[in-house]
Fold COX15 protein.
Amino acid sequence: FTSLNHDMTLPEFKFIWYMEYSHRMWGRVVGLAYILPAAYFWRRGWLSRPLKGRVLALCGLVCFQGLLGWYMVKSGLEEKPDSYDIPRVSQYRLAAHLGSALVLYSASLWTGLSLLLPQHKLPETKQLLRLRQYAHGTTALIFLTALSGAFVAGLDAGLVYNSFPKMGERWIPDDLFAFSPMLRNIFENPTTVQFDHRILGIASITAVTALYLFSRKIPLPRRTRMAVTSLLAVACVQ
């Protein structure tokens, strides 16, 4: 307020404050909604030995996610005496917080579906093995694209260029490698961060489309076909 937002009113500040407060409270509710039933099931003896290990790992991830959130917010509250720029959290910590959330969500969903739906027993053909490997590679690419989005958000890199497919008047911007050393551009140069996110996004939707087309050539169960089709639909919407 002293250095930048002189005109902010108390109601405007309360709006930001309650957004942060609601996010924290919601995170705690999610943690309790997971940990309390898990403890109950454990006590009743309803968990198998392998499932106990998975439950402990997910409980640890829930706690770790909350710790990362605090660590991320802390970076936005640190005093920077030589800078009067807009206060923002570290893009590194933001990416870590998002990445941890994606791992927690995916692991929870995978565990739930594994318990609810019986696993298909399919013949291990060469095509099926290739499809599974390609699906894992596509998953990793999508995860990397999401993490690059956290760097875009953390650096406000989306404000640098707002045209597509070109960035301004050029396909490759002049300031792509403006920082030194060169590796620093990937994580701290807003232009490079936005450029990388665009390339990764295009690569992700291309990979998902290729996965869908490849899956059409293999006899798959109805549930698997629905999953691949849904993946393509969501990728297009995204």
